[in-house]
Write a structure and sequence with these properties.
mainly alpha; 13 helices
Length: 393
């Protein structure tokens, strides 16, 4: 009988990925420490700055629509309080206890998304993506992003030794993500579907899945994506407007052109906080997906650069937490949350600047929206929880 493998041999047999295989059990991972105060601080600053920008971008529109210039300011402040409540709840927990709620969380998410698809969704902007609960609209697609991260982190950590196999380590994760993507596309919400796919591939890569499987699936997905874009009239028109905005200046690319004019008007230092001209009914609903355009106009290149530096700092802290996590589950959670915030920020800014086709994704912590802000802050809470179990430098 061959001798049992030592710890060194077990490490050598582990899948090759960003997250190293850790032999210790959950119970041996150690006591929890303090949260990452730098990450918490920059998150609070971003949320506070977002509330200011929401008020600046929406005051005139809110006065016209609701006869109350502070309408969106008050609601965004309420969402921020709720979001920080979610952040605090997750931050004080041991992230490893979250594994017990993985499947209930995923199940509730699927039920909510099915409800939207089957007609219970509230329509807005040509899509039925929200479920109205009293004065609050819940967007299940936002919950799906966090639920997928939680499920993938649990599953990948559990299947660590088989992560390089196709039938166990790759295919089941792709199928679950594909099902959630299909529910997003039925709403329709192409942007969230793309984010779910990129989240899945990122965590599979981090866990050590075979690169050939990931690249092969990406190549196979390209013609499907092309069909979804070119085979649907409104998506095809958006693509044409992205390629030639001036041609569709008065129709489908109107919002994009006005957004680019906002950035151009801001120059180096901007026209001044609160003094945007584009928010005076030139840029439709400037407080939501295109709020970065108002930011660029009022605070200029300096303001946009400062925002991007804040996001870069947040991303650095997230990656740092992931690499120092005491277990693989924490590593995957931290990388997943960091990837989610990164993707949404890059896509939103890219769309507003005309570098990417239009997608309905919010700017994390800045754009107006209850579901996105609460989920983003809950995600940071999970990241802070992982930081409490991180190994010392």
């Amino acid at each position: 009988m061959s001798p049992a493998p030592t710890n060194a041999r077990r490490d050598s047999m582990a899948p090759v990925g960003v997250a190293p295989y850790r032999a210790q059990s959950v119970e041996k991972a150690g006591a929890l420490g303090r949260v990452d105060h730098a990450l918490l601080g920059v998150t609070m600053l971003l949320v506070a700055f977002g509330i200011v920008m929401v008020y600046s971008a929406s005051a005139v529109f809110a006065e016209h629509l609701h006869h109350n210039g502070q309408f969106f300011l008050l609601r965004q402040s309420m969402y921020a309080v709720m979001g920080f409540g979610a952040l605090a709840f997750f931050a004080v927990q041991d992230h490893r206890k979250l594994r017990a709620y993985t499947y209930p969380m995923l199940g509730v998410t699927v039920l909510l998304m099915l409800a939207v698809v089957m007609g219970a969704g509230h329509s807005g902007g040509g899509a039925a993506r929200w479920i109205r609960v009293g004065p609050i609209n819940i967007q299940p697609a936002e919950i799906a992003k966090l639920s997928l991260i939680v499920w993938l982190s649990h599953s990948l950590a559990k299947k660590n030794e088989k992560i390089r196999t196709f039938s166990v380590g790759f295919l089941p994760h792709l199928l679950v993500a594909g099902f959630l993507m299909l529910l997003c596309l039925k709403q329709p919400d192409f942007g969230s579907a793309v984010v779910l796919l990129l989240l899945t591939f990122t965590l599979l890569f981090v866990a050590g899945a075979r690169t050939g499987y990931i690249l092969g699936t990406l190549i196979a997905a390209l013609p499907v994506a092309a069909y979804l874009v070119l085979g649907t009239e409104y998506r095809r028109r958006r693509w044409e407007a992205f390629l030639d905005p001036a041609r569709f200046r008065s129709t489908i690319s109107y919002q994009l052109v006005e957004s680019m004019m906002s950035f151009g008007s801001g120059g180096m230092t901007g026209v001044g906080l609160g003094d945007s001209h584009q928010k005076l009914f030139f840029l439709p609903e400037a407080h939501t997906d295109f709020i970065s355009a108002i930011l660029g106009e009022e605070l200029g290149f300096v303001g946009v650069a400062g925002l991007m530096l804040a996001y870069a700092f947040l991303i650095w802290r997230g990656v740092r937490i992931a690499l120092r996590s005491a277990d693989d589950h924490g590593t995957y959670l931290a990388f997943g949350v960091t990837t989610l915030l990164t993707l949404q920020a890059l896509i939103n800014l890219g769309v507003a600047m005309g570098a990417l086709p239009t997608k309905g994704l919010t700017l994390p912590f800045i754009s107006y929206g209850g579901s996105s802000l609460i989920i983003d802050l809950a995600a940071v809470g999970i990241l802070l929880s992982v930081s409490r179990s991180a190994k010392a430098a």
